[in-house]
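pipeline/complex-builder :: batch 7 item 3
reading input block
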Amino acid sequence: MSPVASALGFLSGAFLSPAFLGFLAAIPVVILLYLLKLRRTEVIISSTMLWLRSLEDMSANAPFQKLKRNLLLFLQILALLLAVAALSRPYLESEGAPGSRACILIDRSASMSAAEENGTRLEMAKAMATDVVNRAVKGDKLMLISFADRSEVPCELTDDLSRLREAIASIEPTDARTSIKEAVQIVRSLSPDNPDVPSVVSDLEVILISDGGIEDEESLGELTSRLRYLKVGRTSDNAGITAFSVRSPPEGRGERQALVTVFNGGGTTLETALSLYAGEGLLSVSEIEVGPGASEDFIYSLPDLGVETMRAELDVTDALASDNAAWTTLSPSEKIRVLLVASDDSTGAYFIRRALSLDKRVELGFATTSNYRFMEPGDYDLIVFDGWAPQTLPEKGGMLFINAVPPARGVSRAGEISRPPALAADPDHPLTRFVNPTNLTVMKAMKLVAREGSVELISSREGPLLLDASEGERRIVVVAFDLAQSDWPLRLSFPVFVQNLLNWAPGESAEIKTTLKTGSPLPLFEPGAESAVVTKPDGGAEKVVLDPTRPVYFGDTDMAGVYVADYGGRLESFAVSLLDKNESDLGPADSISVGRGERAATSAKLTRNREYWRALLLIALMVLAVEWIIYARRAWI
Amino acid sequence: MKTRTDRGLLDPEFIARLERLSVAAKKARAGRTKGERRSRKRGSSLEFADYRDYAQGDDLRRVDWNAYARLDSLYLKLFEDQEDLTLHLLIDASASMGFGDPTKLDFARRLAAAIGYVGLAGHDRVTAFSIQGGRSEYMPPAMGKRNAARLFAFLESIKDGGAGGLEEGCRSHVARTGGRGVTVLISDVLEEGEGREAIKWLARPDADVHLIHVLAPEEIEPGISGDLKLIDCETGDATEVSASRGLLKTYARRLEEFRRSVRARCMARGVGYHFVSSGDSVESLTLGVLRKSGAIK
């Protein structure tokens, strides 16, 4: 860092608007004005002889006289310095109260429910906030924002301190994630740099009371206000379930596979029991061991009991209880609808049909090239075109072209390749994961020319053998050869590829409902139903008016657990779990990054920046007055 | 004549009072007649002055025979010469004299007129000389009240202007007139050297010299304020001052030193020094200060 930059850095620590120090450049102007100003009135007198002698006398003590001569100039420069300093808004830190305009941001995310020595973190945060309010002096205005995954304003900017205290007391804990973006937007809407609103609050100080672990803490960088971060909490001793999903494995009928990820934030190895429940019935209990600071995945095979909700529970007593259990719902209707369109002479269709039917989820439909036009492509998650391609592609969905060129932009055929040796496959792509193309023999293949942006999944020297040519919502895969002209269907990599394809082709929509995170809205929709009653995990019920044409979202999901929507007969369960490593990792952050740099946690003792520009301005005014008096009295030369 | 002199220089009543005065000449007369050199104008006086021993060649007609009869030795009876006195009026008319209200020059004119009238009325020869750098004016000697108008006209014709030249003026005056008699120099002496050379030229053993040092009230107590650029009217030199109490105090001290210095030079040469302000009245000055100091009796 250059000396200038470091000097500026130093200055920015003492001034709120160091940019105004640029006005120091006005000093030469004052000197110039001073030189110009002394255009003396010319007076003709009889003789200057005596005056010259007098001046000689006066300048006998010259250094002091020179100083006096420039006294006015010095005073002017002093006044200017003071004025510039005042403009730059210097401040002194003094312990005690918040700034005269402050916004208190209280984190009420799941991690704030962690138990500390003196109650939960949220209680500590509320006590700190109350302390801030108690230290406010008359005329100070404060506002309160509580935030978890969403933000609320329990109390807008007010000088009514008792209302503030009540608002602080009313903040309730949530099991939600920590997102500060909304809070930042609220604060920014108050800031004077908001072009939409006339300057509401200038010089707003933001006091962030949190334990860190804010997912989107970089959005704090958008704040122009001063930010003070008060750290809450000390312990990091917590174990939690950070991922929980259950799905049907492709092979094996009537089985379910559960994946549980357990995170241990404590300093010692965690040895405890992990229980899985289906509905209220205990399915399994197993001893697990997770090293300090580590995450471990545990996979269980469970019988399919046909129940909708499952629960994983850790048998631990730690700082944060809400992450010791996680819920998930199973979707029995989880089906992958596949349409196989094969030309009549295709021999490879047999292999693909065999591979597809291995997966229990697959609902396979058939069409010939001639009756394809009567089908509804939107009904299918995946359409396999074997040796034939339609004139137009479906709008969206997965498509597999075998030995056919899709009428997609940029993919064209440029001759044939004979006996191309397959080179390596892309191991990171979801389609070719665990697919080993070595020793794959292909008699002949199309030579494909692909546009930029498509991905060669299996390549040969002369062109791709397997190509991902997806565009937009169309997920297009092209196999450049007839399956019957190769030994691929006989190899292990083929069913793996088909399985990958089945998981990949429908996109992310398949998993959407299984596990919701706390704070995520629940989509409620039932054709014909006008209202639904949602029962929350704590037993509370809420009636929701539905829209018969589109889903209505239910947002009050700050609590982890199972939410049951009763559509007047049909019940739908939603599992809402914390499942957030940010929250389970309780160790409070000592600093938060605010985009432009780190902001270290301030001690619980609040300091207040007392600006003294008024005093400076007053002194500048007094200096100016003195300057004027001296000038008026002409008491010095 | 009274009506003619009434034109601003002197008022008639004052003139009437002036007629009773005469110009005092101490050195001028004593020096002349006591000397052993023959005077061109002797014997006309009947006023006894002194005795001295007879020396060979002395006019026997002047031997005091009565004294010889009593004391048996020859003594010469000396009589005062009734020589007409020459009054030189030297008026500094440099540009600096044009300052003040009334101007110092105006004041000098009237003062010169008053003194000159005293001289004319006392049947002294009166000459006037305006000193101006480069172009000095000379009024040839005049005697008798009837020449008062001529004197006044000359005085009124003097215009201020030019720079300095006080020393040169005095020297040329002495060169022209010999400088004997009574010389009255009216000047502000505002130039480097403080009139030392001028006084040196004027001061002679056989001359009564008076310097009337006239300064304007503005010069004695300047009422300046603010940041000023003072420009010397004679030299054009500019001096930047910012008026202040301290400066004015210093100025007052410097002025006093200046006056003392001029006075000291005058004393050293036996020149009468009279400091006047152009704001004073000529009448009271002539009848008061000059009379008291013995310049006029």
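note: The radius of gyration of chain A is 37 Å.
queue -> next item
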